[in-house]
Amino acid sequence: MTLISFVVPAFKVQGYLRECLDSILDQPFADIEVIGVDDASPDDSGEILAEYALRDPRVRPVRLAENVGLGPARNIGLDRAVGEYVWFVDGDDWLVPGCLPHVADRLRDTAPDVLIVDHVRAHWNNIGTRSAMREVFPVPPGATTFALRDRPETLKLLHTAWNRVVRREFLIERGLRFEPGWYEDVSFSYPALMAAGRIGVLDRICLNYRQRRTGAITKTRGDRHFEVFAQWHRVFGLMDRWRVTGLRPAVFERMIWHYLTVLGNGDRIAPELRAPFFAQMHADYVRFLPPEGYPVPPGPEGLKHRLVAAGRWRTFSALREAHQATETARRTARRARRRVTPVVRRAARRARDLALGEYYRAELHRPVDPTLAVYAAYWYRGYSCNPAAIYEAARRLAPQVRGVWIVRRDRVAALPPGVEYVVAGTREYHRVLARARWLVNNVNFPDFVRKRPGSVHVQTHHGTPVKVMGLDQQRYPVGAMGMDFAGLLRRVDRWDYSITSNSFSTQMWERAYPADYTTLEVGYPRNDRLALATAEERGQVRAALGIAPDEYVVLYAPTHREHLPGWRPPFDPDRMLDVLGPRGRLLMRSHYFHDRERHPRGPAADGVLDVSAYDRVEDLYLAADVLITDYSSAMFDYAVLDRPIVVYAPDWDAYRVARGVYFDLLAEPPGTVALDFPGLLDVFRSGAVDDEAAERARAAFRSRFCALDDGHAAERVVRRVFLGEMP
């Protein structure tokens, strides 16, 4: 038997239907069928269903001769379904990639009558909002089932058909069908919960609920919204017929909440229909009020309930108008403040910047401090990378040099004890930039910084390049959007030294950043620690991360896509852990460009640790047994350890066209290559992650890119730059 039958009704959804169908059919789970019901749609929805059926036998189209509406269309799909479970997905919504294996696992493990899944509201302006799942279940129920009487708060989840997967035989046994008319979900979803002996909740976002700008019923005014009353009448009729006890107060509260929601939406109920709608609310309140009462909400919401109970429309309306007037006044005041505040703030900021600029220029007339070295990394994100390694070597080999770090205010706490620093943007910051003899950075200092006679600028870079950089990006305008190449060259002209890790990097940097600097091809200072690390140090790092000695640790570290802001490669940590087995532990690290989006999970029982906010990436390399990456320079650093590397490049073709690359990573990889997520899982299942072919590839890669990483690169930089020693 097919596990899941998807019933997809289609009416005027031609612009969204392909995305819906693709989201179902492209899931890494095949035990499904899709019954697409063309509800006599006047657009090309029916043709799209037929097209998909021709190329995928799992799609079964049904074309109706006349429009019957959403509820009856779902019933027609249900009658043709053969799956053990049925999932009603509307034609303008779409599934989250990779969700279906988790749904299937939960269905098989717990055999629920109803499985509720989480969702997000996907607004037309690309904003997403979460559901009420976290509020209703602060502690997820997990892989357990329950009856509604044991967890009546379940009623507070959105009462739609598409956020639940229902056992088909259960629907047949209970005779549950969708009624015609609007709000058809009400008289289906609530009775299904009341009748279910086993309800499950999957705390995983599985569906995107599209919030359309136009065309949605919820944005259509008219008297058809009065059909909500008949749907709720059916709910109470079934409660009486089934003699459901103990749930009436909670269901009644939901009914009043829903009525108030519909009435409060100005896009649904026209002003002339508000009074009669309220009158019907009052009538239903009196008709269905439980003898034992119900939990009236506190605050303003409770006041609305009491006014409905008393039938006081004029008071209700007057308070609503007063509230709207107050909100309008507040919005007007906020807009006024927004008009004034930015002007004031800009003026204040301009005055402050002018003052600091004058201070910096005055400091430029003072002598260069012959003992001061200023360090920075990743646009002042903290203490890391090649500058940190050089700083530590200088403290040991050139103690007469005073090192000062520049960091953002929010990164001060992450500095190691005893490191002297200044906060970016302050007077002290401008002073050290003006007075320093040495300025060491893995990116460029700001444009206002002047190259003083006697000062030495050291560009350490922060990785061997896979993607094209500098002037070479001019050939790839998609990836170089907004770049100021003339300004870039002015910054490059300040360099005295360019630190490179291998001959390949030297060649690429000289092409990408043409200027009159000296290249120090000495290896990467940040990799010294990796080259010299001992088994004892590795054990200490793993222990500090909460990793047991016998755990098999995989580090996943993808790079940033400048041409696709916010895009992430498809990666399902739970499925990866399933393949790794009980000893598996997964470390996940986002690119530093996303550091303000980080939400560290901390140690978790599920075996996943978000290490995006971990400052020393070298610790993570030491802890890991395997690295998974894509086009990141992490592969060159990790290769120093001579451990398995897997290149996961699901967008390789698109990436090299849009962003540009310096060499064919698939032809010269540091190990095994996977082009899609199932292939990545197979790399670990099959043992290809560290087989003979992977070892040969890694050896060739190390020979080409890691020969200089012998543990003394930082020392070579300090001796040349700070002590003036020639090799």
From TrEMBL:
Q: Where is the Glycosyltransferase 2-like domain?
A: 5-171
In the record, the note on similarity to other proteins reads:
Belongs to the CDP-glycerol glycerophosphotransferase family.
Cellular location of this protein? Cell membrane
What's the name of the protein? Answer: CDP-glycerol:glycerophosphate glycerophosphotransferase
Name the species this protein comes from.
Answer: Micromonospora chalcea
* Membrane topology of this protein: Peripheral membrane protein
Keywords for this entry?
Answer: Cell membrane, Membrane, Teichoic acid biosynthesis, Transferase
Q: Which residues cross the membrane?
A: none
Under the heading Pfam families, the entry gives: Glycos_transf_2, Glyphos_transf
**Among its keywords, does the record have Metal-binding?**
no
Superkingdom, natural source:
Bacteria
